Amino acid sequence: MSTKLGILTLDPQTQQEFFHEIGKRARKYDIELFLFSPLNIVPASHKVEGYCFHSDINEWKQSEFSLPLYLYDRCIYEEDSKSKNAKRVVSWLKSRSDTTFLGYGLPNKWVLYEELKNNPLISPYLVETTKASLPEKIISKLSADHPIILKPIDGNRSAIYSIEQIENNVLVKTTRAEKVVAKSFESVADCKQWLEIILRKHIYLMQRKLNNVNKNNQPYALRMLLQKDHAGNWHEVTRKIRVGDKNGLLTNTSENIYTYEGLKKQFPHFNVTYIENEIDEIIAQLPKQLEQTFHPLFELEVDIILANDQSIWIIDINSKPKMISADKIETNRLEQLIEAPLAYCQFLSTSKNGLI
């Protein structure tokens, strides 16, 4: 009997190319693949209205079906009522004993930091982080020598801000529609009023701003995608460099992506052996430590800053990686990326049935 795997997404009508490519390979793993929104589950009957992939014609077809045993959560939440309702349904599904998620996700960035800062294997790579609870707390950390970063606690699409004191003025930068936006406040008091407004809208975390710019004054960071394979072991799938705009900020939406080899050429003075040994240690330890502390995981997107002084910092960990377009990943790695959910689902199914 085929294993049933459901992909959860808030907008199944927009059938992403990535999901279609998974569907084309599902038969190879003897998996029946479904695509649906958590909001289309009928709680009383556990029936679902969504799409089933038909391998004979390589197409999705609308269908009604029973809730699949295995679920791959690709829901990206906003702050609207639809997202809030879907999040509640997914939490309900995760609490059930008759459904198994490929990965159970991670908590918000504050909970993540509070747990990992006590881990001796991971804490050396963490930037000191505090809750930006009051404007006075933010301003007290600000000085001409110490610009700071404000980032949203939940990693949603709320803005990231850079705040820097220049003599008596305060310069704030953010990005909107992929463009750098800057505002200068003539006094700390004026900036305080602005901070009061944004802190009423969102909960932010505060970190010192790291020095990670290239010769063109563009911020950059290393992004790694890690996934479990057919045997349940973690592997690095890809390693890329994301580059922000000149004099700007690096955000999760920064689309300038370059090879890791390109970074080494830009910084020939870097001790590459030391850096790669440290990164390998992070790859070896981080997934294991996260699963021991929280829940089982399937994939991770890890952002690391290689500062200009060669210090290494984990700045973001995401259990729902942003899908990388096919033209920005090596061909041999692309196949691994696409088949990973199927291979790991097959591993879970085989393990559950006591066949390995």
Question: Would you mind describing this structure in some detail?
Answer:
This protein is of the alpha+beta class. The protein folds into three domains: 3-101, Rossmann fold, CATH 3.40.50.20; 109-125 and 213-324, 2-Layer Sandwich (D-amino Acid Aminotransferase, Chain A, domain 1); 129-208, no CATH class. Helix content is 29%, strand content 30%. The protein has helices at 17-25, 81-95, 109-116, 135-141, 188-201, 260-266, 272-293, 331-352, and strands at residues 3-8, 31-36, 41-42, 47-54, 59-66, 70-73, 100-101, 129-131, 148-152, 161-166, 169-176, 179-185, 204-208, 220-228, 234-243, 256-259, 299-306, 312-318. Strands 1, 2, 3, 4, 5, 6 and 7 form a seven-stranded mixed β-sheet that branches. Strands 8-13-9-10-11-12 form a six-stranded antiparallel β-sheet, with helices on both faces. A five-stranded antiparallel β-sheet has the order 16-15-14-17-18. α1 (17-25) crosses α8 (331-352). It starts with a strand and ends with a helix. InterPro entries: YheC/D. This is YheC/YheD family protein.
Tally of helical segments = 8
Distance between the termini: 17 Å
Global shape: globular
User: Roughly what is the average pLDDT, rounded to an integer?
Assistant: 90
Low-confidence stretches: none
Order of helices and strands: EHEEEEEHEHEHEEEEHEEEEHHEEH
- Can you tell me the CATH architecture of the largest domain? 2-Layer Sandwich
**CATH homologous superfamily descriptor of the largest domain:** ATP-grasp fold, B domain
What level of helicity do the residues show?
25-40%
- The radius of gyration is 22 Å
Beta-strand percentage?
25-35%
**What is the CATH level 1 assignment of the largest domain?**
Alpha Beta
Largest sheet: 7 strands, mixed
How many DSSP E strands? 18
Supply the helix-strand structural class. alpha+beta
Number of domain units: 3
Query: Which fold name is given in CATH as the topology of the largest domain?
Result: D-amino Acid Aminotransferase, Chain A, domain 1
